[in-house]
Amino acid sequence: MRALRTASLLALTTATLLAATGVATAHGTRWQQIGHTTAENRISGEGLATLRLPGHAPEIVYRNGATIPQPLKDEGWGHVGDPDSLRGYVFDVYQDTRTPTPATKMYLVTKPDGTTTEFVHPLQPDEPAANANAQVAATPDGQWLVSGPLGEVDRLFVSPTPFLNPRGPKVAGDLPVAARIHLDHHIRSAQGCDFVGATRLICATSDPYNDLYPTNLQLLQIDLARPLNGRDVPARVHEIGQVPLVSTCTGTFTPEGVDYDDGVLRVEVVPPSPCNTVTDVYSFERR
pLDDT tens across 62-104, in order? Predict the structure, then answer.
């Protein structure tokens, strides 16, 4: 029988690894919690990214359903996932919510000048239709975008970055899959991911079970065998620990976005109702 521990039970009975000690360890990597802030749920709760525009101070941008522009909603893009940003570009991922089995997913790229371009990708046979575009992460060199769905998966999908990669599209159209990251261990419901190095991703999941890893609601480290180059690559998955579950309210916590910028890792966690009027954002540094 599959073991199950709900987030609410854990919140009531145990202290989580990250919250209790402030330190998570995965194969020599240590993350020390250095801060905690909140963002209003009218703008947050689906993801976050640090935007750096020339001549401007760094800005953390948040995503949730209310941040979706009405024209995109009218087209059927009713869900936005965890975004990423690099060199002043913002990369958003959208899911078609008009039908239960959509055939496409969409990447919206915002240039530093504020103009946007839609890249609508027809799903391939191995790309899950439901919740197909939950998060996106840009490689530090800006050449590749890594995205993935919710649900239990054994791979992530790699596409050339529009405008930044010579192989990437420059006008609206398809953003094709160039390669796949084959995981040595299944992951479930990765809500947010970001690169912390050329070959390492950190992801936060809303996985409610502990059958894949010792805890649920995991923070995962994914180590690629080599930097992405447009070809398939294997990767190893390790659990760092459980995301912080800290609230005066009891119930279900939902990890969401992950952002890494200038040495700081940020993890977004939506607390249980009625405390979910804000989203908690925990900050960590490697020590």
Answer: 999 999 999 999 999 999 999 999 999 999 999 999 988 899 9
Distance CA 228, CA 158 (A): 8
Measure the CA angle with vertex 33, ends 239 and 237; round to 5°. Answer: 15
Q: What is the 3-state secondary structure (H, E, C) of 191-247?
A: EEEEEEECCEEEEEECCCECCCCCCCCEEEEEEECCCCCCCCEEEEEEEEEECCCCC
Looking at the DSSP bridge assignments, the partners of residue 218 are 242
Alpha-carbon distance of 264 to 65, in angstroms, equals 26
| CA dist., res. 49 & res. 103, Å (int) | 27
Type and span of the H or E element at 15 = none
Residue 143 burial (10 A CB sphere; 0-12, 13-18, 19+):
buried
Question: What 3-state DSSP class applies to 53?
Answer: coil
59's tokens: 């800005």
Condensed to tens digits (0 to 9), the pLDDT of residues 185-203 reads: 999 999 999 999 999 999 9
Q: What is d(CA 5, CA 13) in angstroms, rounded to the nearest whole number?
A: 11
Alpha carbons 179 and 182: distance in angstroms, whole number: 10
Query: What's the whole-model pTM score?
Result: 0.91
Find the helix or strand (DSSP H, E) in which 257 lies: strand 254-261
CA dihedral 76, 81, 85, 91 (to 10 degrees): -30
What is the residue-wise DSSP string for 143-176? SEEEEE-SSEEEEEEEEEPTTTSTTS-SSSB---
Amino acid at 142: G
